[in-house]
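Researcher: First entry.
Model:
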Amino acid sequence: MRFDMRAAIYARYSSDNQREASIADQVDTCRRVIARTGWQEIGTYEDRAISGASASRPGYQQLLADAEAGKFDVVVCEALDRLGRRLADVAALHDQLSYLGIKVHAANAGEITPMHIGMLGTMAQMYLADLRDKTRRGQRGRVQAGRIPAGRAYGYDIVESDDGDGGARQINPAEAAVVRRIFEAYAAGHSPRRIAHDLNAEGVPGPRGGRWRDTTIRGQVDRGTGILNNDLYVGRVVWNRCSYVKNPRTGRRVARPNPPDQHEVVQVPALRIVDDALWNRVKERQNALHFTVQRDDSGNALNRAHRRRFLLSGLLVCGHCGGRYTIIGVDRYGCATRRSQGTCQNNRTITRQEIERRVLDGLKDRLLAPDMVETFMQAYQDELKHAQCAADADRERLEAERAEIQGKIDNILQAIEANPEARTLASRLNELETRLAQIDGELERMPEPEAVELHPNAAQAYRRKAEDLQSALEDRNRPVRAALASDVRRLG
């Protein structure tokens, strides 16, 4: 590698038994490498408490974007597994950086080559698989010993066990009484929402000390979540209900319920809070309601319906409690906090059509007023000119650098013709030609400069689009969300 290279540092630590200072330690190690090689540090990219199994890391993604922009010539990291744990991600990164003419240098291995990618990348991926297996094995062992693998279930306190190992529980009498009350109320026909309202009205603290929600009580039957589905209340620990896999695109964990024959079940009678008779009454009611919701009049299974999204979905807020205003009935918005917790006194509701009409009227009558449109047009024009000037400046800089490099190449070629033994000049020539190819690629990807002006009738076009949008919202046969997104893009 040459000595005048611009170096970028990448550092990362996961949340697995590591600490914040790990970033500073990694950066210091990389800076020592840069100082030793004589490179120029241009910046640091960091990801804190984020697993290397996912490429969806802010610092990592910014590193890729700046690599495309040609902001550095080499990436320096403490070890290859800092860049990623998955072999596919590391290999793809190396291929992309190689295409851009950017090197990768690890403090513990030197310049990274395809051989390193194959060996170190495989080791990093094996480490992830081994860590996952060891974690599951440890959890299974704790379950088989009658311990809770993780979390503090409502109704219990964590206690120190005789062997000093965590996971031991004992019943919390006050919380256990609330658990029995919830089971009895549900079995008697009360809904989880009604139960949550009653508990909140009496000031009974929820599992985390806050308010009760209907979802906290209801949970999901197949995953064993929620108060009504926790087998621990009848004296048994059930583990491995779900398998968790990471989506390779988003890096998010996705739960997949396992069949019952894969569940680990251990009896812990000392932790029983609810008797079998009450538990079975709750299960019978859950099964009956589940059948009613999931079947039509003929008993045929219904497809799970996706919640419809409207123009203002997720944007409305209750002015009384600050909670969300959501659809609580047929085309009617109301306070979600009042509905799920019963703690908000705002009982006012409004139809979807009325609130959307008010918003669109505001769009037409206020945002499209002549003085507002004139201000917008001027600001938009200024922004266009600013963006064009920035693009022109980048193009001029690259063209100037290209001319300078081309001049150096011509001089080196002349020197080599005069002295064919000048091998160092040949090496320098190769570096300059690589950079020249990078510049040509950047110039080729740059859009041609063009003058962009707003049409003098832009204000009238805005008003027409707003009126068309209102018509689209009133047409139930037209995909509202798609029409909105399309029209708003045209308006902007």
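Researcher: Second entry.
Model:
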Amino acid sequence: MPKTIRPAKPDDIPHLIKLLMLDAHERHEKNENLWKIADDAPEQIEKSLKFALTAEQQPFKQFWLVSVDGDQITGVAHAMMLPVPPIYAGSFGEPGLILPDCFAAPDAPSGTVPSLLAAAENALHQAGARVTLTSTVAGEDWRTVSEAMGYKPLTLYLSCTVLGEGDRPAGVRLATEDDVPGIVMRSAENREVLFDIDPFWEIHPEADQRFSAWMARSLTLPDRDMMVMGSPDNIAGYVIAQPASRLHFPPAHDITGTGVIDDFYHAELANPTALGQGSVGASALLQAAESAFANRGMGAAFVVCPAGWTSKIELLKAAGYETAMVWSIRR
């Protein structure tokens, strides 16, 4: 067990860069296309750490903790207070999230991982988190330890690195302003399914208005493709193919070639336990998103899916997706 766990300091940055590069290479070995190492990875890690440890104004509260044995830093944990998306009520307040860039050196004392996780969890609780989440790459020791601490899968991040190219499937088209009310209607169904799966996704009373404003804004953003099936007065489903963000990828990784699908729903997915209506429409939307990524030069896709939405997971696995990362929850 480590002798000391303390907050990281700017003087620790050179040691942390070495640990976090080892951490990044472990993910890279699991999926080299999804977890691509940036050409300037050490510089990006240094830049991120300097900002986190020294900047007075930060977009969210975050914590970097290190385990120390003698004069050696043997491990690192990274956690943050996660802002609640505006379409959710968040009556439990901001959850605490233990991020995937946590790592223990190969020669770290026994017990380093659970000690770092417990320390990160304690820091989040002291910051006001009533609910804590862990974000771990599938198969890592950190996930095993978090499960032993009582964490249960909440959200799966499924990936595919063989994307279809070419034109959008028949019946799928780019969204317009006229489609926003229909997208919002289907999004409301999507939110109900999410809430039925887990009350973590409690719906905000103004979710429709907020989502409508975000969809109108998204139509103006050139970095994404919004697509729908059906006419404006009868939208059957929608999907948004957008670029990856740093929330899911530590700074050592090059995310320019990765797309993320979060907003994705079709009426065929209304039953979270079975594809009772088939999956032709939902599959076409997924294929359209993949084609959009491929046509933008991207080679990997990341789909966000609740762990309890088994029909959606079935659809994704049939299309060649595999779980790459898991967000787990402890209440």
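Model: Note on the second entry: The domain at 4-155 is CATH 3.40.630.30 (Aminopeptidase).
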